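[recover] target loaded
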């Protein structure tokens, strides 16, 4: 398969709001605290201050390097005033959906302001979190997040995308991690993730409007743009359109 067939479209297809018995987290959930051999990593902002603190669950050296590098890119992008302006300028943000009390219930999209996305996702403090690799997701799924345990499980194949010479492929890891990081933001009532994208919600609103997908696409495309040689004619809007078109 052509490497680009491994498309951005497939990136964003990830689930959130999982029960504690989700396969991806089964072995992990047997351990109540991060064991000492977990690798603690502080990811810096460009000014050297701490951006993210992440525990990596039994990573190999290549996986550790890839995750650290991709998360460092995310911190760089989030602190970029141009990126923050772009987030603020985007219309049509949807936080997730609420089920009505009807029978059967309907899923109703919850709009959210760009300001809230900027404050809570792009500039909000992220609690310490865990990343583990996991190889057996369902089709078209590369990662899952459990906001209660502050844990992201991610397909090792997606982590290995970082080894590619092609920035469009490396951008997939940036996109997936940025997407999942949005799910770590908890709702004000503590009930779970503030930004959700379950299948019922994706049936009633374009995936490209959901905060998780949209921040993932924007971050991945921003990274891809930063990797282009001058004069190559890269278009951020085309990159975003590609991602949105394939995901729906
Ligand atoms: Zn998701």
């Amino acid at each position: 398969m052509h490497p680009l067939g491994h498309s951005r479209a497939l990136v964003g297809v990830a689930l959130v709001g999982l029960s504690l018995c989700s396969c991806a987290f089964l072995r992990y959930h047997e351990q109540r605290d991060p064991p000492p051999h977990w690798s603690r990593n502080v990811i810096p902002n460009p000014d050297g201050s701490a951006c993210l603190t992440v525990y990596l669950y039994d990573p190999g050296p290549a996986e550790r390097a890839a995750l650290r590098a991709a998360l460092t890119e995310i911190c760089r992008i989030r602190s970029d005033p141009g990126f923050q302006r772009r987030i603020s300028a985007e219309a049509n943000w949807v936080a997730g959906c609420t089920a009505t009390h009807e029978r059967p219930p309907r899923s109703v999209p919850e709009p959210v302001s760009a300001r809230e996305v900027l404050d809570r996702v792009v500039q909000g403090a992220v609690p310490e979190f865990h990343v583990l690799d996991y190889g057996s997701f369902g089709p078209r799924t590369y990662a899952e997040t459990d906001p209660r345990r502050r844990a992201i499980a991610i397909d090792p194949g997606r982590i290995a995308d970082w080894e590619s010479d092609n920035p469009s492929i490396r951008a997939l890891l940036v996109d997936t991690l940025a997407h999942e990081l949005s799910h770590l933001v908890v709702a004000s009532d503590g009930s779970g993730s503030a930004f959700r994208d379950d299948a019922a919600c994706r049936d009633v609103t374009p995936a490209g409007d959901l905060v998780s997908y949209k921040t993932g696409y924007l971050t991945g495309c921003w990274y891809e743009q930063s990797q282009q040689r001058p004069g190559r004619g890269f278009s951020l809007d085309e990159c975003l359109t590609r991602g949105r078109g394939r995901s729906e």
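[recover] notes: Strands lie at 15-16, 39-44, 50-57, 93-99, 107-112, 129-133, 143-146, 151-154.
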